[in-house]
Sequence to fold (1452 residues):
Amino acid sequence: MDTILFNLIWIIPLLTVLVCVPISANHGKLLKTIHATSATFVLFLVCFLVYRVYALSGAPVDENAAPLFLRFFTNIPWISLFNAHYIVGADALNILLLALTSFIVWAGVLVSWNIKGNQKVFFALIQLLATSVYGVYMSMDLVLFFVFYEMEALCMYLMIACYGSGRRDYGGKKLTLTLAFGSSMILATLFGLYFESGINSWSIVELSKVVLPMDFQMWAFPLMFMGFAVSSSLFPFHFWSPDGHSAAPTAVSMLAAGVMMKMGAYGCLRVAMFLMPEAAKIWLPYVVALLIFNVVLGPFIALRHKDLKYITAYSSISHLGLIFLGLAALTPVGLRGASLQMISHGFLTGLFFATIGMIYERTHTRDITEMGGIMRKMPFLGVGFVLAGFAGLGLPGFSGFIAESNIFIGAFQQESTLTRIVTILAILSVTTTAVYILQTANRMLHGPLPQKYESLTDGCFREKLVIVVLAACLLFIGLCPTWISEFLDQSIAPIFDNISRVGR
Amino acid sequence: MNLMNCLILAFILFGIGVWGLIRRRHLVGMLISIELMLNAANINFISFAYFTAHDSTAGAIFSIFVFAVTACEMAIALAIIVNMYRRHHSLDVDQLRELHD
Amino acid sequence: MINDVTLSYLIFILPLLSFVVNGLFLCRKSDKAAAAMGISANGIAAISAIILAVHYFTSGLAPQKAILFEHEFIPFGNFLANIGCLIDPLSIMMLVVVTFISFMVNIYSVGYMRGDRATGRFFALLSLFSFSMLGLVAATNLFQMFIFWELVGVSSYLLIGFWYHKPSAVSASKQAFILTRFADSFFLLGIVLVSYVVQSFDFATLNDLTLSSFKAETIDLGLLVVSKADALILGSVLIFTGGWGKSAMFPMHIWLPNAMEGPTPVSSIIHSATMVVAGVYLVARLFPFFAICGSTLTLIMIVGAFTMVFAAVIACTQKDIKRILAYSTLSQLGYMMFALGVCQVGQTIVTTGWTASTFHIFTHAFFKCSLFLIAGSLIHQVHTNDLDAMGGLRKKMPWTYWCTLISILAISGIPPFSGFFSKDEIILAAFQGHHYVVFGLALLTSGLTTFYMFRLFFLAFHGEPRHEGVKAGHVHEDFAMTLPIVILAIPALLSGIAGKSLFAAFFVPGKIHAPQLVKLAEASWIPFAAVAIAIIALALAWFFYASPKARIAKALDESNRSGIYKTVYHKFYFDEMYYAVVRQFVIGGVARVARFIEDYIVGTLVNFSVWFIHKLGDLVRVAQGGYLPFYLGTLIVGVLLWRFLGNLPL
Amino acid sequence: MFPGLSIPEMPLAFPLGGMDIAFYAVALVMIVTAVCTVAVKNILQSAVFLIFSFVGTAILYLLLNAEFAALAQVMVYIGGVVIFVVFTILLTSHLGEDSFSAKIPRLFAAFALAVAFVVVMIKCLLPIESLKEGAVASPENYAGLQQMAFRLLGYDQSGFIIPFEVVSILLLMTLIVSITVARRWIPDDYKKEEEEK
Fold:
């Protein structure tokens, strides 16, 4: 029963799209209600499944899923021509990421209630995007994984190019082409994996049992890691993200920064590092050098920007840099910190972009120098933004702090010199993060209120709901980190076991 | 007169057609060159039919089909040319390149 | 069933509850309900803390440490980060001080914030602050301390910027948060480093270390490889840096005077009595750890002593009543800090400074809080911070006047007021630690303190009224505001006498793995010297600002002063220096370079690759140019190539 | 045919006979006129030369016993296609041929490519001995009207009725299409004209 429900996660959005096909675009309200209902349903479904997976922890797993603690394991032959299977399963890591996705999708549907343009197509695209992201997180078969991974970039392009603002065509193209570039690297190494492994399988579970030849790993790992890192905007492949985010409509920014950018990091962890741990141990201590840009310079760049979305995009870049720092730590604490940061950053950036979108809807500008004092007119949105900011600068009580402390402590346990330097720099750069977040919040929310903003209104119930739920998630993780840490440890353990295997 | 001679003649005519097709910039001139090339092909049909074929009538019939197709092609091509001329007031292939992108 | 554990839970949960309820529900609804919630929650917490303290000190448990409760927060592999409540004399004392002062300030705020738009929010944030501060002082480990350390920072930020429509308040709040955050990043680094070496966050473990066991192993710190013992010393400096920023020691002091832009109750609780002593508290809490870490204590002493003199000098020239008090706070923090530092005597340790420092935390909290509340009261009446506009308030505000006198005598170290006892012990500790320069400076500063405090006192209360409102008789005392002032005057008067024996009996740092100086120098003349200096300073202040011949208008006019006076009046231009560094160097320099790298170097690389691909495309596009002769030519060439290169079946 | 000459023992590349002479003459005419067709500047002259080349082809067909094809050649090509071309030229002819002059490298490239092509193809042909047999394999009236008609309209296995019908439909379509394409009716222009009226 749970297995069926689990598989429904990606099917429901797809079905929603199909259901909405015959409905005329004029029935906007009906369409939106259907989509919102479906998103809410998936949200509850995923939350229920999180509970189920949590309740099952410790119970014996399906032997086919052996090294990973995968629940709801499904294995159906799919394309017999090259042995692709439909394999899905849930462990702590991906069920939590699925939960994150469902929250962000739900919030994305709600915040784009008044989107301009063809609403029917827009909501259908959101659902398709949701399908693909759910698919990526669920699938344990590399072909399935890759298919969903590609589907997402296309939806993203359509949504940015058709519904965005500013240089939307440029931003959309930049985003999609860069992601496609990353995908090409991934695809190449996926084929390499398939043929080098010699077991005729695309299953992550099966492949993880094979020790791939070292010379293959040595070139395939960096290629695949960078391919995934493109979508997580690791320097030097981060350039798509500011332009893409600034051009995208609110919901797409939320999904892109909140969910899609995590897919890369998830891929790095679940595919690249899990399947090629020997090369990971050799390469990752050098990869951290790239993080100096992400983590240290990213906040400085945000400091010089005036466009809210650019600021948030660079903040995402620096926060995602921390994910990679956690991954490169190659310690259980670091990996857990990276996973926590994926989840935490998803919520916080979702909240960030949601409030920015709502503020933009009212002020029609994203330039912080033109704003000021709007806290008085819209205290709720202002508080939402400040909460997101506090979470972003790693304030205790919010999830960001939990993730960052795990990452820092985990990364410090990695004894390579370069990692140490980057860790120290990363710890010290929390100040810069505070500087730009406070500067933004102060310029935008505080100070005297310009005359033109006298008539602004605070968020409506729908917007307040989004803010409250996302902020509650941030606070929940931040205040009760114990269970989520222990929960995540279940799925980190097999990955770490693979990393620490010695010449098996 | 043998098959070889006829084929060589056909090739020479074909080559002349190629030459014309490449050197002409005038659309009609290019069509004329194409006519030459088709003619050469037709000569091949008839000469093979005459010298070697088991079913020589069929070879001749094919030449008839080629006539028909050529006529069709010319008719449409010339119609297009007339139309193009009306639109662009030019039949210079170097200038009529807007079709490519 | 009320026992210690329940009480300790109560102490934490009530302020939190008040924050949540006020913040979520009451803040828009009713100011009165919010105030009632804040006062009652903090009042019960204060009573609980006092009961807990009385029980702790009377039950015979006294100098021992106990953990009342502890919950697992984050497991970091080998070591845990817990949230708990540690009690020992130090934390009990802080619990009492924090809850009591919070209670007083909550009462005071009823009067002070009357008529403000967002009173509910104010009470919510005050409660958040008390909760965070309580969590800080009761921390069982470094990690918990850091968590609450950040939370007090953020409550301070929110409260300084409470009037967010005032640009000066907003920028002051930002400055305060960022500067402390800057220090905290080093603190965090120190925590990470120390926890990596020691494999624990617990104060118990950290305070029980000996460096010798870490001498053999080395640790790679990126640029240099050091032994773990050296890494621990570095870690102790880094941890101290956190306290350095939080306690606003020189040169990170500038945020504290600027933070006076916030509402006065906030200044009184956060920026004088409790939060800023967190840095001192941190060093006191980790004292055995610092004691083994060699010269870190010397650094602490130098920083503290310098700040003490530096701030006192500035305070003598200021005219903004709150800023004078802020600099006085800085100066007193310097006393506390160097008192901890003087415990290092060569290779040995003497613990009298520790006792003196904690004692001074205790007494200082009351009289400084009281002084700030008084300042708020004055500001509330005359609607300005400026001493120019005060004077002659003695008749109008008699209760306030007498309470002020008590507090000022206390801070000046005149017996039998509380400040005398603690300050005397600090000076004695400096003497016993053979740090004679610091000892001299401390004596000098005690004179300066008396001078500027009485300068404030005379200018505000004596002389002729210089304010229209005062002349017109609009000034009166507000009951809600005067009550806490009067209540606080009692401990300002008595806490010294009452606390002396208590502190002497129970306040000793834990077991220290360093040789202790056994033979202590006796110097019974020091109190007399200190009092004499204070009286001379008082007389000077009287002469300049209150004697019948004093030319107050001239004394208050800073325009025709010498260069040195102006430099001091402008706080040695530190604000401007900071502004220059942050504006020009960080935002204009580093950030601009970063943006340059991003926009031009990375951007150019990206554009170049795009250009390159375009050119590659153009190369292929030539073939698709719609150029018929080219197609045909290529066809022919293809046939020829096929003939020559391929296997033509002919 | 020329008994005085004693060359027959040599494997003649150019076997002489009445037919042969006629062939060579016709071939020469065809080649020369074809070259003229391509090389002359004026496009109208080129069309006229094309007629001569087609006439030569028709004669060649006669030599190859394909009377019907020759007839069709004359009727369709000369009578239809070339006249078509001439009409088109006249319709569009007030463009000077000067504007179409190609650059020297292109002329050279065209010539070189064509020559190379012909040389290579002929080189491919020459080694094939079987092509050099002068024997005629086909019956006398292989392309007679009757045979052609029977085959074209026959619907047995060797019949071409279906292609024949397809071609006729093609011709019909061509008729319609060429009229549609060539007629002077562009919607925008039409509207403008209407407005002018």
